[in-house]
Every structure is written in structure tokens, then in C-alpha cells.
Known about the structure:
This protein has helices spanning 11-29, 36-58, 62-88, 94-120. By secondary structure, it is mainly α. The longest helix is centred in the middle third of the chain and has 27 residues, at 62-88.
Amino acid sequence: MPTIKKFEDLDIWIESRRLSKEIIFISKNTDLKTDFRLKEQIKSASGSVMDNIAEGFERNGNSEFRQFLSIAKGSAGEARSQLYRVFDNDYIDEQKLTILVSEYEKLSVKIHNFIAYLNKNDFKGTKFIDS
Length: 131
């Protein structure tokens, strides 16, 4: 794995940002825009995925990073569940639901695999390096 110097270089962050932008698009361009509670819930969950990846990375320690990645994975599941509510309320069609659920499932697998990678790596983070 190449050295990652900032969270914006992480594939899982890039993908979570793309999915968050897709949710924002849906929230602005469908009738979801009038369902304020559900709109804010799904936007929050999808944004939480990318935010927790970023926050964990910035903590500079594998243990904390893994914890935040676990939270990000949970938020991906929450966003996926909310997509079913968005579909059940007729804000998106079944094709869009299937695509987005699949993409969130793939992201969850990538986050899981990255956690597994960190579990095997003895890197403790830059805060443990003597200056």
C-alpha cells in the first residue's frame, strides 16, 4: 500500500464523499427536499462516513483510526437503511435504490478490509514518533 499522507488520498474517503454528494443531489432534486427529517438524517449519515474516516486519520494512531473507521462503517449501514426509507416514500426508484445500496455495501467491505489491514500493521501513528 502506498504511503498515504492525508485522508483525501484514501480511496474509502473519496468513495464516501462521492456517495455523500449523490445523497445531497437526491435531497435537492427529488421530493425528499420536503421531508425535512428524513432528508437531514440521510445527509447526516452519509456525511458521517467521510467525516469519521477523516477524523480517525487525523488522530494519528491505529487504535483510534480503527475505532473511527468502525463508526464510519456503521454510518454506511445507517445510510443504506435510510435509502430503503427514501425508496419506500417514493423519492427514488428501485434502480437507484439498488445501485446506491450496492455501492454502500462495497464501501462497507472496503472499510472492513482497511480495518483488517490496520490490525495487521504495527504502525502506531505519527504522534508516537520522536521529533
